[in-house]
Amino acid sequence: MPIRKEWLDQVREDALEPELPICDPHHHFWDRPDGRYMLDDLLADIDSGHNIRSTVFVECASMYSKDNSKALAPVGETEFVQGLAAQCASGEYGEIRAAAGIISFADLLLGNKVEDILLAHQQISPNRFRGIRHACSWDASEQVRNSHTKPPPHLYLDDKFREGFSCLGGLNLVFDAWLYHTQLKELLSLARAYPEQSIVLDHVGGPLGIGPYAGMRDEIFITWKKNIQEIASCENVVIKLGGIGMAINGFDWHKHPKPPTSKQLASANEPYFATCIEAFGIDRCMFESNFPVDKVSASYGVLWNSFKRITAGCSSPEKAKLYHDNAARVYSLPGS
Q1: What is the pLDDT of residue 336?
Q2: With a cut of 50, which residues of the chain have pLDDT below it?
Q3: How many CA atoms lie within 13 A of 163 on its CB side?
Q4: Is the separation of the CB atoms in 234 and 195 below 8 Å?
Q5: CATH class of the domain whose range is 21-330
Q6: Fewer CB atoms inside 10 A, N or C side of the chain?
Q7: What does the pLDDT look like over 23-70, one tens digit per residue?
Q8: Domain edges within the chain
Q9: What is the pLDDT of residue 129?
Q10: Which residues contact 319 (CB under 8 A, 6 or more apart)?
Q11: CA distance linking residue 134 with residue 137, whole number of Å
Q12: What pLDDT is recorded for position 2?
């Protein structure tokens, strides 16, 4: 979905709590025929008055290597992002450290053979590579787009996948999970089967709001909340608060004449974020931008203002954890 700068520019806000340090633990880079989001684009978004100190890149099937086998091709994305991160770390762009952590892709359906791929990622980026995301977001409806990784149904229950998944712990790697709310039980099974493996649940567990799920927000919320509370009982899982500005979530902000204000975003998103904070606790939640994907709904500055409105009643130590410290700890970023 294209980004409409003129539409976004209709709503501008000064940053709330501009001194609050932030680690943005979820964004992407790509340069494709249908769109571009590179370091200069991220830095332009970050230049919105918020105190973004570091970021974590999450895989998006960009810049795969054509010179490697299919299994090794994703290492090209790590090499690509490692270069952008090194560019940013030169100091020419100020104190911000973009892609201080890198979450890459490896096909865990390779089973234990995936260890060679994981080691290749580490070799390319020994100081930033932190883990793997293998999305399982799949739905039977043709109206819901499945993940870019083209997962089969019930991926996280697959024996071969779990064989590959079991390789992560020995290399001290994090696993990012991306799925839809209909698949939360599958993640619960995975988290219980591997209680020592660190898992990060992206985008509050993917509550859908399009296709067969349109007009069912209240019913879906009840089921989603119950499953989120069950997953929160697994102490090896942390959750990202954000990522529900995508079209698949059904809020349809992109269809409005003007983009939402931070107050409007906060009002719509607070039930989800408050549920997660209550279930997981302050120590296992982190706010994320999911840019540029969520940019179809709001600008970077407005998005972070909406988060800060939701946490207005939190203490300073709690805010430090939600906005910076938890992400830096989970992804083992420098200085954490």
Answers
A1: 54
A2: none
A3: 9
A4: yes
A5: alpha beta
A6: N
A7: 999 999 999 988 999 999 999 999 999 999 999 999 999 999 999 999
A8: 21-330
A9: 98
A10: 17, 20, 311
A11: 9
A12: 80
In degrees, to the nearest 5, what angle opens at C-alpha 25 toward C-alphas 16 and 184? 110
- What is this structure's pTM? 0.97
**C-alpha pair distances (Å), 269 with each of 127, 242, 293:** 35, 8, 16
- φ and ψ at residue 62, rounded to 5 degrees: -110, 140
Short-list 153, 147, 145, CA closest to 176: 147
Task: Give buried/exposed letters for 235-260 (b at 16+ CB in 10 A, else e).
Answer: eebbbbbbbbbbbbbbbebbeeeebb
- Give residue 334's pLDDT: 84
68 HSE (CA, 13 A, CB side): 15
Check residue 335 and give its pLDDT: 63
Give me Rg for the CA atoms of the chain: 19
90-114: b (≥16 Cβ within 10 Å) or e: eeeeeebbbbbbbbbbbbbbbbeeb
